[in-house]
């Protein structure tokens, strides 16, 4: 038994005895002791220097150590449970209708619960261009810039985007080509509540603005248009079919089938051309087109279709470029004036939190108005009639006005993106960049 004053190690070990050292052994021992002591001293000095040095390497916590209680990761695994994808009779072809789509989509979401969270606000942006190279020498460059603009907007707001440059139906070309693409996108993305088609010649010009989805909760198709021009004037330009938001549901599947039945892939194409011309007195094109077809369905299908179609006219869901381009300098000046007085809006920040700065800016825009005559940034600018890829612009405009307008609008939008990277363009017709000083407004 060990006494309380002793440890176990102290009671069991006897004092060791060593043989006497000779002269050579003593010398070698002294040398080893000297070298060992020197190394120990150097290690001690290095340890203290590393501890107090301002350039020491920081040990950052791993991503898993951060708590993110409000973020639910999406599970990209596909469970073996059967879904509509396993049905050999389901077709992506626009010529073969799909039935019970709402139920099919509901079952898929039930097997993928992580995607069911937030599904009502999930948007897929779809756009595209022709399969071949542009005839206009600068057309491909312009389309690349238009696509970059859409990618920027989607990245800032967390939207997915699909770009297509193939014909999903060989006979559905030009403006009809988008319908089979949109329908296929609905099947390929059951996790998305909305499919947002945006023409290749349209640019987001307010990178902060988001669609007011709450306003559309009882509707399935949203287009820019004016009810009085549709129902009273019966004008084929009472709306624009180049940009639309459509809900991923059975109603939309049925509507696209009816809309596409007026297209060039059907034997009734010539008949529909005559019907559209007789219904819409100001229709310019002799052949059936998608925009005239949409107006016709609003006029003739009020109970079936019109009550689920929202004609958005309160903001630039898509704005005519010729009335927008000349206003950009004044709009920039107004936003600079706001930022001069609100230091919080001038604060540098990560791009991923840009939406919170949009919310901070909104109270200062309450008197800006919307649409024509407003000094709020136009949401989307649409270069209808300019034809950037072919170059065959409407003869009402000069080629210079179209191309300069595109550069100015795209640079105006890009300035809003570049501020997160510390840069801006001082001249909207000059692509050269200037560093953005600290605490500076980004006009």
UniProtKB/TrEMBL annotation:
Residues 1-14 have a biased composition (Polar residues). Residues 62-71 have a biased composition (Low complexity). It is a single-pass type II membrane protein. It holds the Pfam family Glyco_transf_34. This is Uncharacterized protein. It is found in: Golgi apparatus membrane. Belongs to the glycosyltransferase 34 family.
């Amino acid at each position: 038994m060990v006494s309380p004053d002793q440890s176990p190690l102290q009671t069991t070990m006897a004092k060791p005895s060593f043989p006497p050292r000779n002269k050579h052994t003593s010398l070698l021992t002294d040398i080893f002791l000297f070298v060992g002591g020197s190394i120990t001293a150097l290690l001690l000095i290095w340890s203290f220097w590393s501890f107090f040095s301002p350039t020491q390497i920081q040990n950052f916590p791993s991503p898993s150590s951060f708590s993110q209680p409000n973020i639910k990761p999406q599970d990209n695994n596909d469970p073996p449970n059967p879904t509509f994808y396993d049905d050999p009779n389901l077709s992506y072809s626009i010529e073969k209708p799909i039935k019970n789509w709402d139920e099919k989509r509901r079952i898929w979401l039930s097997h993928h619960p992580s995607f069911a969270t937030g599904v009502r606000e999930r948007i897929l942006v779809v756009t595209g261009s022709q399969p071949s190279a542009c005839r206009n020498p600068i057309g491909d460059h312009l389309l690349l810039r238009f696509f970059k603009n859409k990618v920027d907007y989607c990245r800032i707001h967390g939207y997915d985007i699909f770009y297509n440059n193939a014909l999903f139906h060989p006979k559905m070309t030009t403006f009809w080509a988008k319908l089979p693409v949109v329908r296929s996108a609905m099947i390929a993305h059951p996790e998305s509540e909305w499919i947002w088609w945006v023409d290749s010649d349209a640019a987001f010009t307010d990178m902060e603005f988001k669609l007011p989805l709450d306003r559309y909760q009882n509707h399935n198709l949203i287009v820019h248009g004016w009810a009085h021009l549709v129902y009273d004037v019966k004008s084929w330009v009472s709306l624009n079919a180049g940009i639309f938001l459509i809900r991923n549901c059975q109603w939309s599947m049925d509507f696209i089938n009816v809309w596409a039945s007026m297209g060039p892939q059907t034997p009734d194409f010539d008949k529909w051309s005559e019907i559209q011309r007789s219904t819409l007195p100001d229709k310019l094109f002799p052949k059936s087109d998608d925009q005239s077809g949409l107006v016709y369905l609003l006029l003739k299908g009020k109970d079936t279709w019109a009550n689920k179609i929202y004609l958005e006219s309160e903001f630039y869901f898509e704005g005519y470029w010729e009335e927008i381009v000349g206003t950009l300098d004044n709009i920039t000046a107004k936003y600079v004036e706001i930022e001069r007085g609100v230091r919080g809006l001038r604060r540098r920040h990560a791009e991923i939190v840009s939406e919170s700065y949009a919310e901070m800016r909104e109270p200062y825009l309450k008197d800006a108005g919307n649409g024509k005559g407003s000094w709020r940034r136009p949401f989307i600018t649409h270069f209808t009639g300019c034809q950037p890829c072919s170059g065959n612009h409407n003869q009402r405009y000069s080629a210079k006005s179209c191309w300069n307008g595109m550069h100015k609008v795209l640079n105006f939008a890009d300035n809003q993106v570049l501020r997160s990277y510390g840069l801006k363009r001082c001249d909207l017709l000059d692509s050269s960049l200037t560093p953005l000083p600290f605490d500076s407004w980004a006009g």
